[in-house]
Amino acid sequence: METSTTKQLFSKDDLKKLIIPLLFEQALAITVGMADTVMISSAGEAAVSGVSLIDMFNNLIISVLAALATGGAVVTSQFLGAGKKEDACKSAKQLIVSSVCITIGISILVMVFCNGIISLFFGKIEADVFHNAVIYMMISALSFPFLALYNSCAALFRSMGNSQITLKVSVVENIINIGGNALGVYVLGLGVAGVAIPSLISRAVAGFILYHLLKNPSNEVHLLKEKFRIDWPVIHKIFYIGIPSGIENGIFQLGRVIVVSIIAGFGTVQIAANGVANSLDSMGCIVGQAMNLAMITVIGRCVGAGDSGQVRYYTKKLLKITYLCTFMVNSVILLCLSWVLKCYGLSPETTQLAYILVMIHNGMAMFLWPASFVLPNMLRACNDVRFTMVLSIFSMFVFRIGFSYIIGVNMGYGAIGVWIAMVLDWIFRVICFVGRYLSGHWLKTAGLSER
User: FRET pair for 114, CA 20 to 30 Å: which of 108, 164, 180, 301?
Assistant: First the structure.
């Protein structure tokens, strides 16, 4: 194990304070998502269809916004690691203003071209589904700037190692969301609007709470009271990380839509099995999703401190934690899988297929997911963003989409073939990302010297 001559930047307690709230926050998001689905279903099939279609588009926008926040988190973490607290504070306002302004522009475009976007993405759909989709998209678009505000502020708190604040605010946000959904759907009978409006309100409340908390000068990173001026070098640093990550995330979400469309051609049984398997798969990736956020903060600090030894040390440490926890969580899911699937009330054929799909995903995730998805965030924190972008896009189109057609469609394996293609995508990513890490090229992009 490599050590550094300098004091370790994160103690065990520091890592616990950062990681554990992130785990709860990810688990909360998934659980609330499941509850939302149940509530929406009572609004009718047209409402469910409209919401599910627009959620695919929303996920595309959300992934791009998350990438901008990631860019800000990397820059701020690097400033903190270098001991440049004033620069870190200045970068905070640059991130918030730039991301909110960009998102306002996106929201306006989405609202103006709403009908055309729906037709472009989803083709000709039934009139009542289209009507519900328009309502949901218009209200969702209004919430994008508030989501950008929340994501930016949350990323800044995480860069300070303070993920407890984001967890607490997330709890408040989701209470408002679920309570509002129940009121809007069950009591007021507002249908799709009853689901969309609470999301808008909860995102606005969460964003403004975090923004207000960031004004506290006792925070390591806080919003300075000085007049705002665009700092192009800082904006460039944020966009240098954020834009490639945004392109990568956007293409990944687009690829997922294409894969879903492939599975849609296999019939009702395979569509249902795929949907159930996806919900269980997300539970198996909770630890990895949390560690993705932690990796940005920890490695960003190490890069800012100019300590390659600690970059290696914490990369290995966080990956070990991710592998151990991912193995434990997925082992429990697989052991309880037969019992869990009975709760869905599926046909025997659908249950059997869902069982196979979850076994493929969660069984292989224990060995491949951390190196495939958590390790790249170490590279991003080292400014090696172009490599991760190009590699991820190439792997998505060649392996996940290309082999889905070859194995799933041409060879006749259906949804199982699509999920095998996903595993091939993971294997290729692991080989390339581990190779990139071992090559040490990230030292150059991070401006570090070998220790």
Answer: 180
Q: Which residues contact 250 (CB under 8 A, 6 or more apart)?
A: 60, 63, 64
- pTM summary value: 0.86
Is residue 282 within 8 A of residue 368, CB to CB? The reply is no
313 with 395, same domain: the answer is yes
Q: Same structural domain for residues 346 and 199?
A: no
Residue 199 Cα distances to 103, 121, 175, 236, 287, angstroms:
17, 23, 11, 32, 25
pLDDT in tens, 329-372: 999 999 999 998 887 777 889 889 999 999 999 999 999 999 99
Q: How far apart are CA 99 and CA 53, in angstroms?
A: 25
Contact 353, 270 (CB under 8 A): yes
Domain count for the chain: 2
- Let me know: does 27 contact 319? Beta carbons within 8 Å: no
Q: Which two tokens stand for residue 287?
A: 């630890």
Q: For 227, what's the count of Cα atoms within 13 Å in the CB-facing half-sphere?
A: 1
**Which residues form the domain of 149?**
42-251
Instruction: Give the SS3 label for residue 162.
Output: coil
What is each CA distance from 339 to 37, 78, 99, 284, 313, in whole angstroms?
Answer: 21, 46, 45, 16, 40
Establish if 91 belongs to a structural domain. Answer: yes
* Cα torsion angle, 257, 288, 81, 302, sign: negative
Distance CA 141, CA 62 (A): 11
